[in-house]
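User: Before I run my own analysis I want an independent prediction to cross-check against. Here's the chain; please return only the structure tokens and, at the end, one sentence I can use as a sanity check.
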Amino acid sequence: SWGIYVDDSFREGQRQIAVWAMYDGVEVRENWGGGCVYIGQGGTTTQYFKDCNFKNFMGYGVYGNHAGGISLIDCIVENSNSDESLSGAQPYVFLDGCDHVLIEHCWFEARNATPAGDFANTPGAHEFIQAAGTYDGLTIDSCRFVRNAGHNLKAIRIGGYGRSVEINNAAMVVAQYVPTPEVGNILIDGPVDTGQENQVVIVGGSLV
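Assistant: Structure tokens:
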């Protein structure tokens, strides 16, 4: 079940939406299905999370489904219990067709993964942040990404077709078990044979 579920189902022929919400200091943990937060589609906008903690979860940390104006500020997303699984693991933050998203000063950490060398080759080693679909406006600013096992950090994946994407001052902390990380901390891909290219600006950052 989801810890927080912003409903987008139809009731009496109308899709449910939320036009403004603020979550300050909320903690969601120990869920065993779905994920911590689901933010629905069809007009939902301006969902603001500050100083929130999502940890020890199955599935997604935050799943944005065609919503706009999602903000994660000073949040911690860590320790997905699906990291060790060979099936069903998901990105910590998955944004499908979400416009105008800000992720700022957040901490992402995978502590619950098996330190074996084949970790990076299992389905459990998903990106911390993944963007998909068609979207306009995504800023990831001054966030820290830590993966304590495996040898591929896989911090951010910019997929689909994104416009105005900025990744600023990302701090990548590599696995403690393997001294040399593989390339793949930030992966930028997009649709095939469409002539569209993701518009991404990367400024600063560190790998330690």
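Sanity check: The radius of gyration is 16 Å.
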